[in-house]
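Give me the fold.
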Amino acid sequence: MAHLLAYAKLTWRNATIIAMTNLPFETFLVGHAQDEKAGTGCTVVLCPSGAVGAVEVRGAAPGTRETDLLDPLASAQEVHAVLLTGGSAFGLSAATGVMEALAERGIGFAAGAHKVPIVSAAVLFDLDVGQPSAPNAAMGRRAVEAAGREVAEGCVGAGCGATVAKSLGMKGAVKSGLGCAVRQTADGLQVAAVVAVNALGDVLDPVDGHVLAAPHLPEGGLLPTVQLWERARHLPQPQQEGTNTTIGVVMTNAALDKTALARIARFGQDALARCIVPVHTPFDGDALFALATPQVDADLAVVGVLAQQAVIEAILRAVRLATPAYGLPSVQQLGSS
């Protein structure tokens, strides 16, 4: 029976509660870097020895890099890092810093006398919070240098400027962040997920349907997006394509090839649909990566179910652990008001 391996502890940094979750793997590391004043940051998942990779993109407005190489038909058989970054398409420049830092460590596939790291990336839009800015190569380097098995959660890394519940615009938005969760079986299968939640839609707990985050009204209370959109044929608030996105990475020690991992990424996207309503809209660029360092044999269905559970919990933690910032309330604040 699957059970939670990760433990969390709360620490204080600049008067903000930061939760930490431990990864069970030695083959994966996670690092963050952010500019809290600017309201943006990036998160890198490193696999220094290489990992099999895949991706599932369901949002209509994604911003990505080096995702074609993860197609099962592509010749590349391993990836060395996945970058989750804020800054919209501008933030993709942080991948250059990740590549340079890995190349300096001799990490990458051999291309003659050169080592070329494979770094895939996906972006989220956070330009409407803080100061308009984007992660750059220097920030990507810092994320690599900070990488370890202990993963900070909340308004950190790619979740620094993340927000949700934006169907009424930023005036009704709720501060979100980044979450991490781990699942394992008693006989050694391990699965973890890191997710930065920046969705247009609301976030709910699929166990009981409780709405955690929805557009908040000036007079108080929440108005779920579906209820708002059911009132007329046209959206009450114009939306811009590409200004929302939930991005994440599933990691596992299961021995899976690229085709099987593509199915795992699909399992993970199904988890988004259980927590985010509406999801995969024309205004979201939802992308989920799956990485495997083959160590144990496991049934695809078991890995997929554990991946779903880890992604669900990571999404809920991203919202629950976020703190008020940039004039936006958090679930913690709205719940106590």
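The longest strand covers residues 40-57.
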